[in-house]
Amino acid sequence: MPPANLESKFRNSNGDMQMDLKNRVALVTGASRGLGAAIARALSDQGVKVAVNYFASSKKADAVVRAIQQAGGVAQAFGADVREEAQVDRLAHDVTRSLGPIDILVINATGEQPMLPIEEINWRSCLDQLEFFVKSPLLLVKVTIAGMKARKYGRIIQIGSEVFETGLGQFSNYVSAKGAQLGLTRSWAREFGPWGITVNTVSPGWIPTERHADISDSAKNDYASRTPLKRLGVPEDVAKTVVFLASDAGAFITGQKISVNGGNTVE
Fold first, then answer.
1. Given the residues 54, 153, 174, 223, the one annotated as active site
2. Is residue 174 annotated as a catalytic residue, yes or no?
3. Which of 85, 154, 181, 186 has its CA 20 to 30 A from that of 256?
4. Does the 21-260 domain belong in CATH 3.90.1150.10?
């Protein structure tokens, strides 16, 4: 059990866990909807100034920003395709100029995730996923790591997926890319640790968001019934885990994959 003075550091007068990150700056990619939007809001609730990255929908990103601002937080929308080096360079420059140096990098952006039998998969199918889960993280880390090293502080949090553990037929392009992304987390954790920079992956189970609007209730109920907790997760479940890892409470956790899936994978 932790010493009382250490535990009290992270709790308020009501006994609720507090993750005070006031005035830190976070860049959350793919934050105009779904998990990214929930993560942006949750970080803002703890005093983080949030850069809400989007690719296609400025209106949705602006709505996330407005919700944060109406709750008393600081946020700004930044459009960029995080697969393109020049756009990532500009994104980091614009965020730093507007909000300050990036302390927390949440790598969440994703694209289409087609399920394809092996007869229909080609190398382009694999590259489409690798560009989001290997190329984009590489570009984002390269433009933020120098500042983190100089300040001897940084939190890099990747959003993975349980599919690397469960495997899923006709999805090998996506599953293999998620495995590669986890490899980056483990290698970078060892490389950046001496500067006080942590690198972790949060791996959600199937958490329905806007992109799953066409999925039937029976399919959702079937998935939920197979988890020990017998329910689907919500985006806020993932967001709370990200906040924990970004805070001082998670400062001694690095190189880890944390599954947020109701126990669907028990490792």
1. 174
2. yes
3. 85
4. no
